[in-house]
Design a protein that fits this description.
Elements lengths: L5 H23 L1 H22 L6 H25 L3 H23 L2 H8 L2 H8 L1 H12 L5 H14 L24 H23 L7 H22 L5 H13 L13
Length: 267
């Protein structure tokens, strides 16, 4: 028998049912709504500097391609989290973390972009393998706790590499391990929370690689910074000054009277 199996349609229908349950849980929970907002804001700012910044510069294109990888990674991780594939979401988030570390390093030394792009496979791996990138970032920041490595290895153990530790992400509450997608609000909340942190990190390191060259660029950055400040206030008790952002936005619009802002992408 050939053709598109009915079982695939049934699986898709089940996933959409779970997506709706996840959406309802997010709409009913202020915490989850905050996480969803920063994920969207991060995708918006990455999308803006990919879509709006045309260039023939190969280093710029390299960064944009990594931004596409990050954007797509956030989208896939989000889709998996909403449709009940929590371990698969965490596995994609490990890739997002690795991409963010690389972008962060490029933001510290932009000459490394062309090196990463032009080295052959063996040389690139020796210079930019994940552990080397993490270690270099720790040294630049003066960090000795190796928190980057701990975070990376945790996602490896939970999702990217087969392990007994990762079996915990297959548990559908008291029903035990479940084959296929399932809805479990605690698991969905934890996965979305982790994705919010990683999306914020990805958006932050990516946008720092671009200067504002237009009112649209400035507004895209300002929108992201405001969403970031709101999220940090909610979860890390960092003061948020709404008036400051309103003043910055008013100043931007006043200086560009013909500028009609569009609030984020539809991504």
């Amino acid at each position: 028998m050939t053709g598109y199996p009915d079982a695939f349609r049934g699986l898709a229908e089940g996933q959409e049912f779970l997506r709706q349950k996840s959406a309802e849980a997010i709409e009913a929970c202020e915490v989850l709504g905050c996480h969803a907002a920063i994920i969207k804001a991060s995708m918006d700012v990455i999308h803006h500097f990919i879509l709006e910044r045309g260039s023939d510069d190969q280093d710029v294109l390299t960064v944009q391609h990594l931004g596409i990888r990050a954007f797509n990674g956030i989208a896939v991780a989000l889709n998996n989290a909403l449709t009940g594939y929590y371990q698969a979401s965490a596995g994609q988030q490990r890739d997002l973390l690795e991409t963010s570390f690389l972008l962060d390093l490029f933001g510290r030394d932009r000459t490394l972009i062309s090196a990463w792009r032009t080295l052959d496979k063996k040389e690139r791996w020796a210079r930019f393998k994940p552990v080397k990138v993490r270690t270099e970032l720790d040294e630049l920041d003066g960090f000795t706790e190796k928190k980057r490595a701990v975070h990376y290895e945790l996602l490896n153990d939970l999702a990217s590499h087969p392990s007994t530790v990762g079996f915990a992400m297959l548990q559908a509450g008291d029903l035990g391990a479940h084959c296929g997608p399932f809805f479990e609000e605690t698991a969905m909340s934890a996965t979305l929370s982790e994705l919010a942190k990683l999306a914020l990190q990805a958006g932050g390191v990516f946008v720092r690689l671009f200067k504002s060259e237009s009112p649209e660029d400035s507004l895209a950055k300002l929108d992201f910074q405001e969403a970031q400040a709101r999220w940090l206030e909610r979860f890390y008790d960092k003061p948020f000054d709404q008036a400051q952002f309103e003043a910055l936005r008013s100043s931007l619009l006043a200086g560009n009277p013909h500028f009609e802002p569009s609030r984020g992408s539809e991504a």
